[in-house]
Each structure stands twice: as structure tokens, then as C-alpha cells.
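Batch manifest, entry 17 of 40.
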Amino acid sequence: MNISTDIEANKLHFDAVFCTERNFDLKKREMLIAGKKSVLYMIDGFLRSDVLERILEKLTELKEGEADFEKAFFEKNIPFAGVEEENDDTAIITAVLSGRTVLMVDGFANAFVFELRNYPQRDNAEPDRDKVLRGSRDGFTETMLFNAALIRRRIRVPDLSIEYRSIGTASKTDIALCYLASKVDKTMLDDVRTKIKNSKIEALTMSQEDMANVINGKQRWNPFPKYKFTERPDVAVAQIMQGDLIVLVDNTPTAMIMPATVFDIAEDANDYYFPPLTGAYLRITRILTMLVTLFVTPVWLLALEYPEKVPEVFKFVLVSEEQNIPIIWQLLILEFVIDGLKLSSLNTPGMLSSTFSIIAGIIVSDFAVKSGWFNSETMLYMAFVAMANYSQPGYELGYAIKFMRMFMLIGTALFGIWGFLSGIVLTLFLLLTTKIHGKGGYFSPFIPFSPKGIARLIFRLK
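Output type: C-alpha cells
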């Protein structure tokens, strides 16, 4: 519905919508501009008051009769670039609740919407998770507009497109699609646009996770992530230059990258801040570590199930000391204990972190072995697995590997070699059936096989 040219009717309508008497931060300011009644609506916490003061100073100096024609008033008397006309009341309500400032003048068919938002934000320091030994030390913040500026700072070509979208019937969350128009997969881009447009979600309460559900639907049983996430502007820009699509969501410092293969998710910024040989070594080490964390405890348990099959040179891996608790239960208990300690550390106040580290060290140290609960070999392998998981940049991929490892452990304990092989088959099945947009497949460049893609993956060739 369009707004009225009668300012009193507009005030009556929008006062009822915004409940200005009840909401202390939603401000209404009435004034005279060139002899005409006018009203401003704004949210105090988002307002750049210094800019608004300069705009109003210019407008209040107008004499009666200088605001008779709306078009001339807009072109000559509003000294601000970030302003647009709007006459739809729903769009005006959304604009005000999003932090913009709206001016309505008696007799004008359109309201003036000013981009005067100044969102509270923290410093753009380097993310705790995505640290690098070399390179930039800035990171995304919770303000989408600021994050878009960090990308613009690094890519200065007209080909860079940053499309604004709004999603959520209640939250009206701002999102941005960032891509190079000449390189992005047009089919993928159109599909994402359509799904955002047709989305019926009420609010993006969980930010990127809800956004992923909008684009790809809920993923209930397959633990492997379909998207890569980063808080680093340089990583996001590198992916854009490769033709990927970046999705920025307001209120979160994380950018969602699509499409992403399992090897893209396993990449780290440090791979590119060193010479090609060093970067290739780091990448190969990370991939091998991922494979070792997946297989080390299931293979060890398999060796204990079939000790006669173990070659003489590897006999030392067999457990010779007495077992009070079966090895499979020791491994599973430690899997849960390690996650319990991680969750505890997340909720430990900084002043108590040293105390928590001491207590956790006592729990998982030599005392656990002496108490009879665990064997020393079990503690060794699980300690390696716990530390090696941090070699993966993405939490989601680390937990996907963990779930596959636990399935192989349980299968091996119940069915021996056949249970172990069924775990491998299930892992490959989930990897090969994980669908992503573009790039040929989740396990690309190995399936479908591409020698050039493999060389590019391992040795960073152009």
C-alpha cells in the first residue's frame, strides 16, 4: 500500500506501527521544512547523528515555497548521496526497522529513505581460528556492509558484483551475494537467487547454518559439510577470483563459500602464503593427517582382533598388559571425554582457564592409566587423534571424520574385518553422494578423475 500525501494520515499510521510511545529507541521527530509539516522516523542506536544534523541544517534553512515541487526538492535540497525515494509503506517499515532514517513531508507522495546506519561492531582483528604466519591480520566482523567493503578493498574491478538480498519473514536479515560476473557459475547463481526469493523461513537465528538449509535443504544424516566457511577477507577474495560464490550474512563474521569440494574445505590460508614447495608440503601433510585420524584407531583395533595376522615387525602395537575394560569401550569413552573437555573449555572463564588445563591434564594423564580405566596405548592413539583433528581448518569436516571413525570402530568390534570394510564403504558412499553445485562433484578432482586438477590441488599449479 502506498503512503498518503497527507502527513497527518501518515503519522497516525506509522505511529501505530512503530509504537513510538512504547519503544524508547525508536525515535520520531516532527519539524517544519519550508513551511511544510514533516516527520522523521529512526532508530537511535543505529543513527549517524552528525550526518543527520548536517542534512537537517540544510533543510531547515529553506524558506516557505522552496519545497513546492517534490522532484526539485529531492534534486536540489538534499545534500546526501545515500538517499532514495520510496512510497510503499511495507518497504518504509522495513527500512526503519533495519536502521535507516525516513523523512516524510506533507504533500509529497514519496518518503525519503536515508542510509545513515552505523552498526555497533567490534574491531576487525585476525580471527582466532583462521590464523596465519604471514599475510593480512584483519577479519570479518558482524556487520555485513563492513565485510563487503573489505572485499571491495581487495578487488577493484567492475566485474565484482555484490548483490543485496533480504531473507526472513520476521528478521528481514540482510545478506549479500559476492561474485565475479565473468567467472561465476550462472546456473548455480540463479538457483541460489531463486531459493532465497522463495524461502519461507521466519528468521536466520543460526546465521550460516540456516542459510545453508535455505540453499540446500536440511542435511540430517550426511555429516560431511557442503560449504566452506571463513572469517578471513583474503580467503574469501581468493575464492571469488576462482569463480566461487560468497554469501555474507549480517550479524555474523563468517562468509559462506560455494561450491566447495572436500579438498577445498581442507585447505588453509597458510598453504598460499608460502612458496609452492612449502605450500604443497603443508597441504599434503594435512590430507595425510586427515586420513591417519580416520584410520589409526580402527586399524589398531583390527590388529587386536586378529593378532595372528599382524606382521612380526608390527607386533609391538599389540597390547600386552591386562585390560580391565575392553579396548573398544576405552576408545569410545575417550572419544566422548575429549569432546566433553572441548565443550567445557568453551564455557570456562578466561581467569579459570589455567586451572581447567591443570585439572584436564590430571584426568587424561598417567593417572588415568594407573587407575586401570585405560591402557597406555589407548591413551597414546587417542591423544594423537585429538591433536591431529586441529590440523583441519573446518570443525564440520573434523567431526565428519570423527563420526566415520566411530562407525568403523563399532563395526570392527562387532564384525571384525567385515565391519571395518563396511565403515570404509559407508565413508566412500557418503563422500561420493554428497551433492554440491558445480565443480564436478564433492570428491573432485579424483572423481571424476582430472590429472590437471590433481596437480593443481597438490602442487598449486595454475
